[in-house]
Amino acid sequence: MSVPSASPVDLAHLSRYTGGSRELNSDVLQLFLNQSTELMLQLQAVVEAADTRTWRHITHSLKGAARGIGAFGLADVAAEAEPLDPAAQHGQALKVLLTLRNRAETVQDFIRAYLDE
Fold first, then answer.
1. Phi and psi (nearest 5°) for 42?
2. Which CATH number is 11-116 given?
3. What sections of the chain are H helices per DSSP?
């Protein structure tokens, strides 16, 4: 697993897409916060159901969304998780889910603090 950088979200990366607008940054980060919260909730059920297709779809979506906002540590873990088969690799899927959850919580906490500024 990759090691997280000092900041869980690269705001300079995000600002390349938002023109540096704090309001637009906030809107994009709020959307990511909502989406990532929902995706992480879905992943637990997907692992328990051993639903490989949905696992790969959700981890792929999370990877892309995280890269889009500059949450590269989370995106890297999602990329590592994406090819797993929770039916055949249940224990490994549970382990990576824990790492994903920890990374997602770190990113979400960062976003909440940013939005509260």
1. -65, -35
2. 1.20.120
3. 11-18, 22-49, 52-69, 72-81, 90-116
Q: Which of 22, 12, 31, 32 is nearest to 75 (CA)?
A: 32
Rg (alpha carbons) of the chain, rounded to whole number: 14
Residues 6+ apart with CB under 8 A from 17: 28, 68
pTM for this one?
A: 0.91
Phi, psi of 47 (to 5 degrees): -65, -45
Cα(96)–Cα(87) distance, integer angstroms: 14
Largest distance between two CA atoms of the chain: 45
Mean pLDDT of 44-55: 96
